[in-house]
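Predict both folds.
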Amino acid sequence: MERARKGLFIALFGVLLFVFSFLALLNAPELYLLSLVLMFVAAVLIGLGSAVAKGFDSSLDGPTDDCYYCKGTGRISGPDGPETCPRCGGTGLARADDYD
């Protein structure tokens, strides 16, 4: 299963859990607290599943050795054509202060 399908499955499971908890468990007075906890868990699952399906979780990866401004090429496009990257000086490597 690819990540987008897995994320969609998690979000859909969260929606179903939320609906079940809201419609079935919330009506029973002795299951009120359980229903609220399950609705909270369902909301977290919906958020996480949506983030995985959209690919937002990949931006949480650690820093790379490439310059984020030129993406490791050392060149950027300027008004007169390709120019040396001002962030890395043309090396394509990230600076030490990029990791902070």
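Second protein follows, with its predicted structure tokens after the sequence.
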Amino acid sequence: MRAFDELRPPSAGRVLELWRDSRETAQDPLERALLCNGAILAECCFAQGLPVYQDASEVLNDLTGREIERLLVRLAGGGETAAQEIPADVNPAFDAARFAALGRE
């Protein structure tokens, strides 16, 4: 992963534009989602005020799916600085109470 020091969240309108662009580029839903996510991150990752990636293909060639997911979660939270990390082994959708209840059944 390339080094960056800032994530700048895009406007909702810009995300919609990127989604529409990716929809025109790819028919497959998974490919379309990856292209859109790559385009979003290409516009949001900065190092010393300069873009880290030129386009979605650079993002997709540099990052794993898990890294993309973590960066998008950070963007959704407001674009914290690069120093704030989400632990790799944490699933934000995990419901500990439900898991415990299932274990008792």
